[in-house]
Amino acid sequence: MKETYEFLKKCGVFYIATIDNDKPRVRPFGAINIFEDKLYLQTGKVKNVSKQIEINNHVEICGFCDGRWIRIETELIKDDRIEAKKSMLDNNPELRSMYNEEDDNTEVLYFTNSKSTIYSFTEAPIVMEF
Fold it and tell me: Is the pTM for the entire model greater than 0.90?
């Protein structure tokens, strides 16, 4: 999990694919955090991505950095605790201009049943499950 976190942090921007009825939807994300030995991301409850994850929490994430790319198959689980939200915002302070751990919009989700694969054109894939 830590290698996945470090890779996504290094990417800066990574992309999350969800399903909207029968259509794929992909959008950029940048905030990632480790809290209580779980990998988390953050969004707003008012966003379509949140509504799509609520209906189908299976997502795929992809990022590219330094000639390598990562693909993550995961399920996202909502964590409504203030402590989880605060940790995310404290570790991604650029979000504080839009979110607050005590507002009704901030949503953090942790990864579960995850398979992360780092690929390159010159090395064998690195597969991690967490």
Answer: yes
